[in-house]
Write a structure and sequence with these properties.
By secondary structure, the protein is mostly beta strands. It contains one helix and 24 strands. The chain starts with a strand and ends in a 15-residue tail after the last strand.
Length: 289
């Protein structure tokens, strides 16, 4: 039903795919072997660069000026794509969180950077997520081991979020942040990780420990279908291409050895899947600090 291409990216923990529509490229990260990747859809080649920041990396936020904001264990940094210079911008954590809270998933909307934070050892419900404007960070919700997502539908005032360790995907009202459960995955399906919206009432979810991506029908909260992949830990999904009808998927080799690696030999690779759906475009940010 769905064809996919395999990109041998060899990531320990691939994450944070973002489509650069101005240049027809994909940017993504390896969080545990801190590396920035840029994949060109014009010539099917990728560039990678080691990032000298304390691991784990968290997320990447492309800027209108061509640079990127990068989050990592100890804050948000500006990365100058031309000079490769990295400078610290801000740290939204409280002083008493600096040793055990790290940055994780995020996304972009107009005038906001959405930032997820997690417990570094992923054992306590101390993570949270919110949004950063030029002058302030507002917390939306708390008490998560890990914050994954979000995906945001501004037109319909909806925000979707993966509470991975509880195997749930939530939806929030963007006006008052009232939370409801959209779906709870079964144990055999793994854990919901990164998510992406299409423009036809669909939410696509990466299954950590589930070896697949699925499309959730937002009208009924049920899975329409899943696409099995030869990687166990699927981490992020984002729509790419001039028509936004291809899905870019990252995965992790982390934790996959022995028999599992033989069963899922492309763990750590990335995938491009042609779909019959069109994704919701995510903007670059224009925030300057």
């Amino acid at each position: 039903m769905f064809d996919f291409d395999i990109i041998d990216t060899k990531t320990v923990l691939g994450e944070s795919g973002f489509y650069l529509h101005k240049s027809n490229e994909i940017v993504f990260l390896d969080l545990l072997d801190p590396t920035l990747f840029i994949y060109s859809l014009e010539n099917n080649s990728f560039y990678k660069e080691k990032i000298i920041l304390p691991k784990p990396l968290g997320n990447i936020y492309p800027h209108n000026n061509g640079n990127f904001y990068l989050s990592c264990f100890n804050g948000l940094y500006n990365y100058n794509r031309r000079t490769k210079k990295i400078t610290k911008v801000i740290d939204v954590r409280k002083d008493n969180e600096l040793k055990y809270i790290s940055y994780n998933d995020g996304t972009i909307t107009k005038n906001k950077l959405w930032i997820g934070l997690c417990h570094l050892k992923e054992t306590e419900d101390l993570g949270y997520f919110g949004y950063l404007t030029k002058n302030n960070f507002e917390v939306v919700d708390r008490k998560f081991k890990v914050s994954n997502g979000p995906a945001i539908d501004e037109k319909n005032n909806k925000l979707y979020f993966s509470d991975s360790f509880n195997s749930k995907v939530y939806h929030y009202n963007l006006k008052n942040f009232e939370r409801k459960t959209l779906i709870k995955l079964k144990k055999k399906d793994g854990f919901p990780d990164g998510i992406a919206l299409d423009n036809n009432n669909g939410l696509w979810v990466a299954h950590w420990a589930g070896a697949k991506v699925s499309r959730i029908n937002l009208k009924n909260g049920k899975i329409d279908f899943s696409i099995n992949l030869p990687a166990l830990n699927i981490t992020s999904v984002t729509f790419i291409g001039n028509n936004l009808n291809h899905l870019f998927v990252t995965s992790a080799k982390y934790g996959v050895t022995g028999k599992l690696l033989r069963r899922y030999p492309h763990s750590g690779s990335s995938f491009i899947i042609k779909t019959d759906y069109k994704g919701v475009k995510i903007p670059y940010t224009s925030i300057n600090f």
